[in-house]
Design brief:
It contains 14 helices and no strands. It is mostly helical. It folds into four domains: 80 residues, Helix Hairpins (Orthogonal Bundle), CATH 1.10.287; 61 residues, no CATH class; 71 residues, Orthogonal Bundle (Helix Hairpins), CATH 1.10.287; 44 residues, no CATH class. Helix 4 runs antiparallel to helix 5, helix 11 packs antiparallel against helix 12 and helix 13 crosses helix 14. The radius of gyration is 26 Å and the shape is globular.
Length: 305
């Protein structure tokens, strides 16, 4: 029941803003999830789950990540809870496969995560606990409620971790860019790292001739029509995309967000074409399709889409 003078909706909203995680309940459910995953991969478990490998599962990880991203963009929180569960399944799956092969268990994953969270939050857990968790940076834990100070400390602690890793492995400065990133994000970060070494285009306009050059090289490879040249066609397409991503970096535009926006606009325009066409699109000629596309683009632009 709602208190006198308050609507049930107001009460629901208030409850939503004050909900806190119950660690005991969450731990109980996580333990259950880990047990279910172990059973699925056991000799008497699910044949499909037992057949999977790191390589076969990784494509699903990317799909689940983008489904989480989509739910966030749409602010579909009930669906987001489900999608986060699907993403967590991927973590459990990888950890169980690693355990089956004798590499590590889900416990090691959680140990690394917990240590990192404590190490990079000295303002919350204290400098002593942060150093015990491996912090090698000399940072001021008194951030006084400043998110900018928190971020600065985070970056310094992270940089100290990278320096330590480099000393151990004789790393390249590009090694700090994760290969696990989506390709567009990885290309952006690689370009930014190279820029710090002075290896970059001076101005965004300098990338325009490079786009023309890469397009010509792609055209030359694709024109051969030789299936044996497909790896070279792929390489040239990659060079073109890399150049386009770095053009976005110079312009201050996130390539991933730019492409997602383009995909959304394409969906809207194509849907409008289907709606406005008097016959199925597959029955129309190129000129008719182009006219429909132009009309859809103009109409949606007038509507602010």
């Amino acid at each position: 029941m709602s208190p006198p003078g308050e609507s049930s909706n107001a009460n629901t909203e208030a409850s939503a803003t004050t909900t806190l995680t119950d660690p005991a309940r969450a731990g109980e459910l996580f333990e259950q999830s880990a047990s279910i995953m172990a059973r699925l991969r056991a000799p008497s478990g699910c044949p499909w789950d037992r057949e999977q490998s790191f390589d076969s599962i990784r494509k699903y990880t990317l799909e689940e990540t983008y489904e989480v991203f989509d739910a966030i963009e749409r602010r579909d929180f009930p669906h987001l809870a489900e999608e986060l569960g699907d993403l967590l399944l991927q973590v459990l799956f990888y950890a169980e496969m690693a355990a089956n092969e004798g590499h590590f268990t889900i416990a090691a994953v959680l140990e690394h995560l917990n240590s990192k969270l404590v190490r990079r939050h000295p303002h919350v857990f204290g400098d002593e606990a942060s150093r015990a968790a491996g912090n090698r940076a000399d940072v001021d834990a008194a951030v006084e409620g400043s998110s900018a100070a928190v971020l600065r400390n985070w970056e310094e602690i992270k940089a100290a971790e990278a320096l330590h890793a480099a000393a151990v492995a004789s790393a390249s400065r590009l090694d700090s860019v994760s290969r696990a990133l989506p390709a567009l994000a990885e290309a952006t970060k690689l370009g930014a790292k190279a820029q710090k070494a002075g290896f970059d285009w001076p101005n965004w306009r300098d990338l325009l001739p490079k786009l023309v050059e890469e397009t010509a090289e792609l055209e030359a490879e694709a024109a051969s029509g030789d299936p044996a040249r497909k790896p070279f066609v792929e390489a040239e397409l990659g060079d073109l995309l890399f150049t386009a991503v770095n053009l976005g970096r110079h312009l201050g535009v996130d390539a991933e967000m730019a492409l997602r926006g383009c995909n959304r606009r394409f969906r809207e325009r194509f849907k409008m074409m289907e709606k406005e066409a008097e016959r199925p699109l597959e029955e129309l000629g190129p000129a008719e399709l182009e006219a429909l596309w132009a009309g859809a683009k103009k109409k949606l632009a007038s509507e602010g889409s």
